[in-house]
Amino acid sequence: MFIAAQTEVELPALYSSAQYHVPLLGWATPLEPGALERVIRVAQLGAVLAGIGLVPRLGCALVLGSLGYLFALDLLLFRNHVYLGLLMGGLLCLSPAGRVLSVEAWLCRRFGRAFDTRGSLVTAQLIKAQVLIVYGYSVVNKLGASFLDGFTLQEELPFALRGSLAHGLLSDPRGRLLPAFEGLLHSDSAMAACACAVVASEAFLCFGLPVRRLRPWAIALGLALHGSIFMFMNIRVFGLLMVASYPLFLTPRHES
Amino acid sequence: MTPSGEPTSRAAASVISCAAAVYLLVQLSLPLWVIARRELTSRDFAWDMFSYHLSCSKLDAVLFTENGGWQSVRLDHDFGSWAQLRRALSAPRFADYARGVCAHAREASHGPVRLHLLSECRSDRDQPAFALLDPERDFCRAR
Hints:
Number of strands of chain A: 0
Strand content of chain B: 15-25%
Radius of gyration of chain B: 23 Å
Order of helices and strands of chain A: HHHHHHHHHHHHHH
Number of helices of chain B: 4
Largest sheet of chain B: 3 strands, antiparallel
Number of domains of chain A: 2
Number of helices of chain A: 14
Shape of chain A: globular
Oligomer: heterodimer
Number of domains of chain B: 1
Distance between the termini of chain A: 22 Å
Strand content of chain A: under 5%
Strand order of the largest sheet of chain B: 2-1-3
Structural class of chain B: alpha+beta
Largest interface: A-B, 47 and 45 residues
C-alpha cells in the first residue's frame, strides 16, 4: 500500500477540481496538489506502521481513511488494487495482526506487557476467501470471446509493455521491440494461447489454493503469474497484495 | 476462540459470524450484479482485470451554440485518462457530465445549445464497430 500511495502522489492532476469527478460519496471533494500530498503522506505513514507492526491497527486505519477518501472521491478513478487494498486493510484492522512478528509484539515481550489481542481470527479466513473470490471472478470475467481469442491482450499488452521491465530486455538499443517478440504480439494464435494460459492459471489458483495437496503448486503458479504480470505489464501492487496473503493458506486453520 | 486462547462469548461469536456472512454475501453478489449488467464502459467492483478492451476509432462530443456553431468539447481537459473517460461513457454518467457542459455553454451563449456524442467503438476482433451512446440523443435536453 506504500507503493500504491507513492504512485498516487505522482498523479495530482487526476484529483484536481479541474477534472470531472463522479464521487462515490457526495462529501468527498476534489483535492489540490498540496492537500493530496498530505493525504498521501498519512497513507504512507499508516502503511509503514502497519508494515512494521507498530500500532498496526492505527496504521491500517490511517491507510483506510486516507486512501479510502481518494477512492470515494472519484468512481472514474476506480482501480482494482486500491479497492483490494482497502478491503484487506479493513480486514487487517479488525484482526489481531502482528502478535508474533511485529515491533509491538517485541516491545510487549521486552517490557513484559500484555499484547492487545482484540480482534477476530475470522478476518484471516475472510482474507483467504477474498483472494479466492478475486481469482474466481477474474476467470468469470475473462470467459468472453474477446479475451479468449487474444484480442484484449493484443490491444493492451503493447501499451502496458512500454513502462515494464521486460521492455528493456526485449527491445533493441533504440527502444524498438525485437522482431521475434513483435511477431508474437501480432500473432492471433499466440495471444489466444497466452489468454487461455492466464485463465487456466487463475482457475487453478482459485481451486488449488484451498486444497492442501495442490497448494504448493498453486503458490508456485501464483508467484509465476504475478511475477510475469509485473515483468510484462508493470503491475506491482495488486500482485503484491495477492501474494502477501498466500502464507495465510499455509497456516493451520486454528492459527489463522 | 480469541487469539490468546480464551473462548469467545456466544453473543460476540454470533455478531462476528453475522458480520463475516454479510461481508461474504456482498463480495459474492456485487461482482455478479456488475457482470450481469454487461456494461461495456466499466465493470468496476467485479474483479475485471484486463478481461475486455474497448477501443474507439471515433469519439467526439459535439456542442452546438448559436454564436459558435458546432464545436468539439475538449474531453481531454475534463478527463485525465482514457480509463476515466471510458467510465463516463455510460448514458447516466455522460448525461450528468453533459449537464455541466450544457449549463456552461448556455450561460456563455445565451441561446439554445445541443450536445451529441459521436462514437465508433469495438470491443471484439470480429464484431463490427458500434456507437456507445445514441448519436441522435441531445444531452442538453433534459429527460
